[in-house]
Amino acid sequence: MTATPGEIHLQLRNLKNFFRVPEVDPFEGETIDLSGIDQVMDALRAQKDWRTSRAKAVIWLPEGTADDALVGQLPRALATYCESQIQYCRRKMLEVRLEGRRALRVGAIFLAACLALSTALDKWLGSDSLLGYLFGEGLLIAGWVGLWHPLELLLYSWWPYSSDIKLYEKIKGMEISVRHGTMPEQA
Q1: Sheet containing 56-61: order of strands
Q2: Using an 8 Å Cβ cutoff, are 132 and 126 in contact?
Q3: What is the torsional sign of CA 113, 116, 118, 124?
Q4: Nearest C-alpha neighbor of 60 from the set 22, 13, 118
Q5: Rounded to whole angstroms, how far apart are CA atoms 105 and 29?
Q6: In angstroms, what CA-CA distances link 108 with 38, 97, 105, 120?
Q7: Residue boundaries of the structural domains of the chain
Q8: What is the CA angle 176-3-64, rounded to 5?
Q9: Helix (H), strand (E) at residue 140
Q10: Global confidence as pTM
Q11: Contact, 149 vs 30, CB < 8 A?
Q12: pLDDT in tens, 68-119
């Protein structure tokens, strides 16, 4: 049996390991230190068109595992889990943006101070002086470097949270099936 496109197959020891990290025990054959949902997220990230394609998770449990009561609760539990993770990511994105704004204020003040000091040094030591030139340019560079972190926060640091929100939205509506046995080899 081969996986159809968009199917993500997981072999778990029990269904609770879909949400929590299993205890790694190489003697028992358990060597993956990721929860099932983390494995799904990694598998989705590896797919180029995960945003537009349909995805389905197939969870394989050992024979004789009596998790039938949990199987019925899985869609609701998955939706609840994903919604709480979405809220967490939104809070973290807001924190990053607020920190970016605070850092931008500090960086702008630092840049203004460096520009003022550079201008004062240029007037005091003269623009023809090598020492005045070195300190003046050094202060200009330091001022611009002071804006590096605020701009990094405002431009880039929130992207992982935004991506995770989209992933959790995708997973929240994902079809999940549970099968008993050993997961087939994937080609």
Answers
A1: 7-11, 56-61, 175-180
A2: yes
A3: negative
A4: 13
A5: 53
A6: 40, 16, 5, 18
A7: 7-81+173-180, 90-164
A8: 55
A9: helix 130-145
A10: 0.78
A11: no
A12: 778 888 889 999 999 999 999 999 999 999 999 999 999 999 999 999 999 8
